[in-house]
Amino acid sequence: MHGWKGKFLRINLSKSKAKAERYDGVIARNFLGGRGFAAKILWDELKPRVDPLSPENKLVFAVGPLTGFSLPSSGKLVVAAKSPLTGGYGDGNVGTYAAIHMRKAGYDAVIVEGKAKEPTILLVQDNQIEFLDAGDFWGLNSFETERKLREVYGKTVGVLSIGQAGENLVKFANIVCQEGRAGGRPGIGAVMGSKNLKAVVFVGSGDLSAADPKELKKLSADGYREILTKPNYAFWKRQGTMMTVEWSQENSVLPTYNYREGVFDEADAIGGFAMEKIKVSQRGCPNCNMTCGNVVKDSTRKKSELDYENVVMLGSNIGLGNLKRIAVLNRLADEFGLDAISLGNTIGFAMEASERGLIKEKIPWGDYKVVKTLIEDVAYRRGLGDMLAEGTRFMAEKIGGNSKRWAMNVKGLEISAYDCHAAPAMALAFGTSPIGAHHKDAWVISWEMKVGRESYRKKKVDKVIEFQRIRGGIFESLTVCRLPWIELGFELEWYTRFLHATTGLEITWKDLNVVADRIYALIRAFWVREYGRNWTREMDVPPARWFEEPLTKGALKGAKLSRAKYDAMLKAYYEKRGWDERGIPTKTTLMKLGLGDVAKKLKKYVKLSD
User: Fold this and answer.
1) Which of 83, 105, 378, 412 could cross-link with 385 by S-S, CB 3.0 to 4.6 Å?
2) pLDDT per position as a tens digit, 132-166
3) How far is the CA of 293 from the CAs of 225, 570, 609, in angstroms?
4) Which of 469, 33, 10 lies closest to 208 in space, CA to CA?
């Protein structure tokens, strides 16, 4: 088998045992790797309705057939588990040397089950697996943990760790590496913490086998060179995703004051050009020549890696217009292992709840000192922070007062940084994202601004599905970064050529789209199995705020979504995917995608349409 290693590593923390297992090559062809492998493993192995923070949940690290080869932006790894935040399928990707070393160690996925009796560090060194005492590491933040481990095992090894948020089971704790790279928004860091697993260290020394090494070497050189020629490359190197702040302000989609507005009076102070003035260096993922991590000195003179999502959610969304102070909050989130998107959402929600008198605590908009303290309280689950640690869905249930209508989440996962009062296609992308509201599966909003934001045409539904196939289905499973394609225009045909050189298989984009649809249907089946009769199409609908409370500022003052037209788009989405009116894949669709076994199991929990 070329491209894939053909082995999974199974770790039982309860028994301190490890076993390498061969898997069928059909699984590789049907699910590719990364997200595809993770979804397949979790569907097959998890007991339905398992407590996400119990030893029975499983934590999966998975890579794809392109991971680790010298190819553009191929240093990615997927982390996945049943989500403690949403109760459904949860995953995230992270650019990390752990991905490279995991592949060189000989594994396409690592499956972690059980719970260690004491805090543990897992060392995967080729075929030698060790369970190390993490007593001296428990309580350290993610930066301190990685630095100490690198001192022992080397500067270039792969390290994935959790901070105090994961240890304290914050529902949106993530997994961190390289002092600013993070993944697992739906609480995958909390799952790691629930297993007493402080960190995983990967050290691999093996080779990666390609079907056509000579062709792969040529494609690699040509691909890297092609990226350098793209018109937007120079500006991307200057600002990366931070350029999106000005774009979002111009298009009235910049989340402001808990998504009440789409413009922020101090947007210029937190945008890409403001960032350039305090930028000191750049960071990137392995095998990347379009690095997007902009490192700045924050107001305490410490380094913080900024990108659009984190800056906006900890800036305009909570009314803070000082970039150096935002950088402090961002660094704290990374150190504690808190997802900055959900963190900014929960703080914005708490600020609005305070303003409305629904909680006794006073949390003024834009109050840096209060927020800084609150972030620490979230990580340690102290006082009000304990409630925020559960996420906005739980917070709304707790405080009532009709707050569910402005708790900005879908399926329990907080919405990432695009306001959709006047962006119906992006609202649909958030509504139908397979992990809850996240932009990575279908960042369709830029295209939508160009074709006309006011329409609800089926053309937009087609585009959402197209982007989900490419971004969420294929890139998440290969596993490579989407940014060369979506930001610079690096042509999709490169990836089928890469696949052929690595695996030897003739795979077309038509074939890949079928794989993507298979993965999306399986993930949807996972959600439906977990929710059973409680599953409804309302799970795919964004918060009421976007439908009921029009914008009051900016060029789009008065704009809001139409619920009736959104429902029509959602209906069309289901039809195009072969799902029924509830958003559940039909038996025919599952059979067509080669998921007949899934249909048999799923009908135990809900009635399947033919």
Assistant:
1) 378
2) 999 999 999 999 999 999 999 999 999 999 999 99
3) 21, 35, 46
4) 33
Euclidean distance between CA atoms 469 and 441, whole angstroms = 8
SS3 240: helix
Give the CATH number of domain 240-414; options: 1.10.569.10, 3.40.190.10, 3.40.640.10, 3.40.50.2300: 1.10.569.10
What does the CA dihedral 92, 98, 101, 107 come to, rounded to 10 degrees?
A: -40
Strand partners, 120: 133, 197
Q: How far apart are CA 240 and CA 405, in angstroms?
A: 33
Coil, strand or helix at 159: strand
CATH of domain 7-203: 3.60.9.10
Query: What is the pTM for the complete model shown?
Result: 0.97
Contact 361, 334 (CB under 8 A): no
In this predicted structure, what is the pLDDT of residue 2? 94
Given a contact cutoff of 8 angstroms between Cβ atoms, the answer to whether 288 and 236 are in contact is no
Q: What does the domain layout of the chain look like in residue ranges?
A: 7-203, 240-414
Distance CA 184, CA 206 (A): 27
Tell me what pLDDT residue 154 has: 95
Enumerate residue ranges in the chain where pLDDT < 70: none
Which residues partner with 62 through β-bridges?
A: 78, 109
Residue type, 98: A
- The residue type at 68: G
What single-letter amino acid sits at 304?
A: S
Maximum C-alpha span of the chain: 67
Q: Are 453 and 422 spatial neighbours (Cβ–Cβ below 8 Å)?
A: yes
Contact 240, 254 (CB under 8 A): no
Helices 34-45 and 509-531, axial angle in degrees (round to 10): 30
Question: What does the pLDDT read at residue 1?
Answer: 82
